[in-house]
Fold:
Amino acid sequence: MNSVKPYRFPYKDLLSIDQFSQQDILTILDLADHYVEQNRKPDKKHSTILANKTQINLFFENSTRTRTSFELAAKWLGCDVVNMEVETSSVKKGETLIDTAATLNAMHPEFIVVRHPDSGAVHLLAEKVNCSVINAGDGRHSHPTQALLDAATIRRSKGKIAGLTVAICGDILHSRVARSNITLLKLMGANVRLIAPTTLMPYGVEVFGVETYTDMREGLKDVDVVMMLRIQKERMDGSFIPSEREYFRFFGLDRRKLAYAKPDASVMHPGPINRGVEISSDIADDLTRSLILEQVEIGVAVRQAILELLASNITRT
Amino acid sequence: MTGAPQFTAPYQQQKPGKIAYINARVVDPESGLDTKGAVLTERELIIDVGANLFADGVPEGIDVVDCGGHVLSPGLLDIQVHFREPGEEGKEDLASGSKAAAAGGVTTAVCMANTKPPIDSVHVVEFLKKRARETSFVNIETYATITKGMRGEELSEMGLLKEAGAVGFSDDGLPVMNSRVMRRAMEYAKMFNMPIAQHAEDLTLSHGSCMNEGPTSTKLGLEGVPNAAEAIIVSRDLHLLEITGGHYHVLHISTRQAIEAVRQAKARGLNVTCEAAPHHFALTDQMVGSFRTFAKMNPPLRSQEDCEAVIEGLKDGTIDAIATDHAPHGPAHKRLPFASAAYGIVGLETMLPLALQLYHDGHLSLLDVLGKMTYQAADILKLNAGRIAKGKPADLTLIDLGREWSVDTLQFSSKSKNAPFDAFVVKGRAVRTVVRGKTVFELV
Structure:
């Protein structure tokens, strides 16, 4: 065996997938695998890796699922957690955000996990505080931990990422999940296809090295992984899409459309799912095809891995 | 001497075998064919065509139609009609409208979506298709709306509407004013390879108007609308088309400025088409005379200069098709003070002779003028129609090119008689109309 230098995770914050190298990603995924195994044991709560550390979950947008995942990840590593939900609608966002950052910073947390409806808001906040800032989703821009947990899920299911063909389907336009996944999957050597109605396909997205389709049958042909995105129901009656039933007819994942993918193709969804709108129930619930619950499980492990790696960095600097 | 119109049963109720149309001047605008010859149909399809077909006589067992040396054209299409069914059957219905079509030599009529209720849902399209099968004398196709209820806010279910049989999308007389909605409509329809057809009128500019803005409107004291109302929307939509791609179609284009915008867009390679109505090249706003509501339509009759621009656009190919905007209204809606009267005129039974005037006047060749009402019109909506060729539907119009006749609106087959062409002496007339191999109209 060659002597491998201990890998140093050189980041203060986790803001977007763009900051990572392939090696960074592999480090996170390997550690996440370790935590998946740990979490299945009865004593998962008794780690002390983050003992005496504090995490503030600062959510300017509701997300029970992501917030809970971060909360469990921290608690299972022995970290104290405080949840803050902030109403943004009535205040000037930029000013409040910086004020809030300064206030929280004064409380000396080690981690601030931030979700914000504005793209780039998390980066702004990270400039104003000393502690680690973790992006839990900013606007349509970035959702790096979701992409990482998706990658970990794919790797555990398929044994690899490089060379796989992954189709991301649905509301690409408004999706930070799609943007982070495109970056990560391309970095790891996967082929990425986007399938969306023209009204929900971002302009000029081909420059990211993805193929685009408006027909599910063509787009799903021979893919290894089908990654469905959530349709914002509140947008359905706007002018992006005529109706839920039309959307399901042409872009919802059902058996007929899934049959164009590889026979062992996996189905993913960041949740929460709209049954009968973007995915039919029988597929969502088909444990031989659907990885939706694995994504939730692995989500906690990935966030543990990230907290550990960021913490190791804090102790060194 | 005018012949007496005679209608046979709707084509769905006939079951013909082989029919030979001999002694014809066979004209197919798409291929450029213009020859003395014959056409052979079997059931619903054309199975042979040519100069030497039946040179040695017609074999036994084949019915013969002697065309008397007249022009045998692909059946004409009118890609913009209002048949008022469902909702206003008193003005017109599919039976009466399609009879008017047959009498005008039109074998395919494309209905606009502004019925009551509007054609914005699958079940209305299905209803229309069903009623057409039961009652229509000619092929019926239909637009569906761009937006739900033609309100210009939310997209209609375009994919499902296409599956139900709609061939294009239009909110008809209600232009989509919201640029953002129009952009999405173009993007969304592109996915289904369907055209978005716009009645181009800036409603904020035309608000309150009832005719063209010009000396006549000034003289009559009527509120006029400037050409800019049309040009603004066409230009805006062409900018949107540039970012969305897809296919944009301008309904009844009528102004010099809008035609020029389309001309330039075509030169830039944009997928834009447009159509013009016969009244916009045959009449000017002077026709309004002293408040003649039969000359009230939307877009309004324009100036002489615009009339000439329409003809120029037809000549140089900027304008792809001729369509009537056939808009039946009864006296209750037309016999009103000009500003209150309904917009629109019937046009199916005068389209052919008014268009042929372009040929008689030397503006367009016969092939070119018929091309605007056959394959070029069909291609806008991707219809399998408008050609005389083997394997194509046996839709044919037999035209007596030289026949002079006087328009008598009371003789129209349409339920409504609102047309400004009464007593016009015109030249050229459909003498036989064949739909899917079956004669549905004959002038005997």
User: Anything to note?
Assistant: The first strand of chain B starts at residue 5 and ends at 7. Chain B has a mean pLDDT of 96.
